[in-house]
Amino acid sequence: MEKEFVVGIGELLWDMLPGGRRLGGAPANFAYHVSQFGLESVLVSAVGRDEAGEAAVRELVETMSAYPLPGCTGLTDSGVSKGQRLGPGFNILIGMTDFPTGTVGVELDADGVPRYDIRMQAAWDNIPWTSALRQLASRTRAVCFGILARRSPVSCRTVSRFVDAVPAGEGQWRILDINLRQHFYTRDVVMDALRQCNILKINEEELTVLSGMLSLTGVDSTELCRRLMHQFDLKILILTCGVQGSYVFASGGEDVSFLDTPKVKVADTVGAGDSFTAAFASALIRGLSIQEAHRLAVNVSAYVCSCEGAMPVLPEGLRAVRH
Known about the structure:
The protein has one domain: 3-Layer(aba) Sandwich (UDP-N-acetylmuramoyl-L-alanine:D-glutamate ligase), CATH 3.40.1190.20. The protein is built from ten helices and 14 strands. It has helices spanning 26-36, 51-63, 131-137, 153-165, 187-196, 204-213, 221-231, 272-285, 290-305, 316-319; strands at 5-9, 13-17, 20-24, 41-48, 84-85, 90-97, 102-108, 114-118, 140-145, 173-177, 199-203, 236-240, 246-250, 256-259. Strand 9 (140-145), helix 4 (153-165) and strand 10 (173-177) form a beta-alpha-beta unit. Helix 1 packs across helix 8 (272-285) and helix 8 (272-285) packs antiparallel against helix 9 (290-305). The longest helix is centred in the C-terminal third of the chain and has 16 residues, at 290-305.
């Protein structure tokens, strides 16, 4: 039986933090954390032919030993670099472009909450569609994507084609971690992405924006979530509310999973939401219940908040996901 993959597709960039630059981007964070749960993850993105791009790939490769990506070895069509495997379960398929490698200015407030200044015309805005991606999509069990990588026509088309090419069926997950940033979205782009997903992850602020787009006013958050699930035929909707906790709604039942946010000493919250999504998806794939997946996701994201940067090594107790 061929291996199945869990894919994060979209932005790979440098977070320019007060203490120096750190590799990031929601899909990169997601794929990295999925690999920590023993699953085969793939990051699909693009970097520039510049120092920042070379450094990004070098840092990924030097994180662990590099091996060929199963099924995608040596594919170089349309400027896509050879697939590489970075250790147990972490793979990359990176396009090389003439656009600069993405950077994001990050300022942290007193609580470690980031404010982002996302630069335009980056390499990840120009991820090419290739036969390698078509091949990968056919073997994908779950894909996580967001709105940010759809801000440009090239990557928008590539992400949309990839998600459409992922097999449908029970236990196949198309996860929209919506991530509405700055002014980089339109109603049409958001609606198209919602129609492609069967799991939606959203925070309180994004829920307010979305309710305005859909003219869903005068109802509470719970009712808004249920209406979204019905309108877009979602299997699962995750609503995160920062320190106030998080909710998971599932189709076919009235029960809602709610968990408080654990109290930890926060270093920063960069990448915490991505680790939540990765842990939740990994738990579902491993056969855990929604409630068990929710608990793991909450604990993992709390741990990431206690660390600097988006990609810390998780303790063994969190990584040992067993059904």
